Amino acid sequence: MVKSIDTIKGPIEKELKQFESRFRKEMRSPAPLLDKITFYIVRRKGKQVRPIFVFLSAKLCGEIGDATYTAASLVELLHTATLVHDDVVDDSYERRGFFSLNALWKNKIAVLVGDYLFSQGMLLALRHREHRLLEIVSSAVQAMSEGELLQIEKARRLDIEEDIYYEIIRQKTASLIAAACCAGASSTTQNEEHIERMRQFGEKIGIAFQIRDDLLDFGTEDIGKPRGIDIKEKKLTLPLIYALDRAPRAEKRRIINNIRRYSDQPDKVQEVIEFVHQSGGLEYARKAMYDYRKQAFEILHTFPNSLVRQSLEDLVLFVTERKK
């Protein structure tokens, strides 16, 4: 049974409340417009999955202190900055059921706000002399940018192979969750083996998380109505890659043509979705997701059993069984 996020937060509930207070302060600005926008960002915060990974990883490896709060704030600031910039790049006007910043304040202001959040994160780490944490999270942001550019390049050609797909999602999605777990561990221990194990744990979960996202986009039985957003954006995800690899040449050419030329037509998008459903692509991707989750559990189980470790297991189940 998948536990609620409130139950999962149990062992770190007190620390998360303190983090929220600290994070609000880190978002403040003397510039009235910027302060108004950052207040809007704080109000529409999501489930804070990445800070939860930071605090649970930290507590698994040692005692939570100021460095952990810095790590969590740094991860959340830089993650929020990337989301703001992503909405501009993708021309997206909605985020978590709210209007995106670019929808309300236009692209120029949204880009500047993203830049401000990046600088706040870097200054926070430097003020506290947490150079290791800054290196961990900055490396993740670099990987996210490289992964996004690789995906854009491949979307133009529609020639993504499975190994390239995994490289893209390792950089784009898994790198930040890996950084959250790595930074959390690094804030409470100097044991490099433990820190590296938590980084690997985060990377496995990040990959499983993204595959789950791929499945949701095809409207699996869990959520009903197909969405097809990735197809409209010409992104080749794991279920589709598998289906194309095993399709007869003529059918493969027809499906790729639908994606390349008609991805804005709902009937053509639905045709691609049905092709993937019939090919076994969803089952293949679901198995891959469970394989990565199993690898993550194997890493986690090298640590002693505890309430914190159990919460991390429950968090893994939460992000891989989510319905949206």
Name the descriptors.
mainly alpha, single chain, 2 strands, globular, two-stranded antiparallel sheet, 324 residues, 1% strand, Farnesyl Diphosphate Synthase, 15 helices
Task: Give the C-alpha Rg.
Answer: 20 Å
Mean pLDDT: 86
Number of helices: 15
Q: What is the general shape?
A: globular
Residue windows where pLDDT falls under 50 for at least 5 positions: 221-226
Helicity level: over 70%
Largest sheet properties: 2 strands, antiparallel
Describe the 3D structure:
The protein is mostly helical. It has a domain at 5-211 and 307-320: Farnesyl Diphosphate Synthase (Orthogonal Bundle). It has 15 helices and 2 strands. It has helices at 5-8, 13-27, 32-43, 49-61, 66-89, 101-127, 131-157, 162-186, 192-217, 229-232, 238-245, 249-262, 266-279, 281-300, 307-320; strands at 94-95, 98-99. The chain has a two-stranded antiparallel sheet. Strand 1 and strand 2 (98-99) form a beta hairpin. Helix 2 (13-27) packs across helix 5 and helix 5 (66-89) packs parallel to helix 7. The longest helix has 27 residues, at 101-127. The radius of gyration is 20 Å and the shape is globular.
